[in-house]
């Protein structure tokens, strides 16, 4: 297994057994320093924040069926800028049900109350506090595996309800235009030539039924079709490489159509058992809350590594470059992000992590560019 996924029994929490269920609770506390809490080009202000989180995972599996869930809550409290305080909570559940020896039903459900951080791509320009939103999501997929072939078809629905953050002058930045639903139908076909080479093709279509504004709606229809290979070049390099075409057609003529070649790549190189190098690349199309009526095409490249000094000491780092092209307004951004974490597993019950993040957004739009450092430490207790 890759370093990041490898589990060492001597450092794995014991969990709590109740009948056929196994529960794994975790309590996390920490603190971090943010050099630019408002992600501002001109009004740079720093602060220290505290984190407190609880996480409960559980799973129940039998020979034919399996259920799992994750319940998570986290409170972030700033020392001087209380308007940035936020509490996130989410529930995620998955199920696998065997309908026949080669036919199964996969389900996923999520209910969450979350926040978009100030300065993120979808945070409204000028906001000085996180943007709250509620998310309800469900997915149902039928999957059949027969010999070398695997076929899957499914549908997904996501419902969003956004709150409205404040600007620096106290005014409210209304985000009702972003409320609505996103419906997706998806299918995938896989064929395994061998245990080291597989070919697949995947298609998904979507309908984004978002409220928008009277003069510029945000609704759109689109699809993405990809085909490629799951491949293990040698025992050192493996991953997925695919390409295809995508299109997103917005109702608003001011945004228009976003379409063209699409790609995705996920590769892992493991020169030694203790060292993994990752490369990821992908193109996605989404909406931005900037002016509440903007389409965005994002091209992202990421290079990172995980190094296991010892079974209980792991260093992970990743550098990401993203090119954001906006449709509907004259703007393009270059985003650079570096995330580094050193994790020390004390024993089966405790973990200490030290981390650093750096984010730079270089925008062609005046007043939007910024950079920031975040440095933190947190400790987790597992039961």
How would the global form be characterised? Answer: globular
Over the alpha carbons, how many angstroms does the gyration radius reach? 22 Å
Uncertain runs = 289-293
Calculate the mean pLDDT score and round it: 91
Largest sheet features = 18 strands, antiparallel, barrel
| Count of alpha/pi helices | 0
Class from secondary-structure proportions:
mainly beta
Question: Hey, roughly how much beta strand do the residues contain?
Answer: over 45%
Order of helices and strands: EEEEEEEEEEEEEEEEEEE
Helix content: under 10%
**E-strand count:** 19
Q: Span from first to last CA?
A: 24 Å
Q: Can you walk me through this structure?
A:
This protein is an all-beta fold. Helices cover 0% and strands 69% of the residues. The two termini are 24 Å apart. A hairpin with a 4-residue loop joins strand 17 and strand 18. It has an 18-stranded antiparallel β-barrel. It is globular.
Characteristics:
383 residues; mainly beta; 18-stranded antiparallel β-barrel; 19 strands
